[in-house]
Design goal:
The protein contains 4 helices and 2 strands. It is mainly α and 103 residues long. It has one domain. A two-stranded antiparallel ribbon has the order 1-2. α1 runs parallel beside α4. The longest helix has 18 residues.
Amino acid sequence: MRIIGFLLDRIAEDEKNASRWSRVEVRDGVLGTYVIEDRVVAGCEAKRRIVAFHDGPHECPRAPLPENDRAAWFGVGDDPCPTLRMVASAYADHPDHDPAWGA
């Protein structure tokens, strides 16, 4: 599986489960609902934009890669750029995560 497909699948799962991540808390003795759904959905949209930017030739100017490693620099083939690896690291415990992407 390409890292792009892996990330888009995980983002979709996060969005689907966002409403389950609301929780009830007691603050200053008052029972209330603290909803994190909006933040999760906004985070999913941000990740989706990062993935879309990286789905094709691009440059990550601060990517810690040797300049002569063009395949990795441009995220071409099976060697995704460090930005996508960092996003994927949040899902390192998922069974579809490729250990070659790092953690």
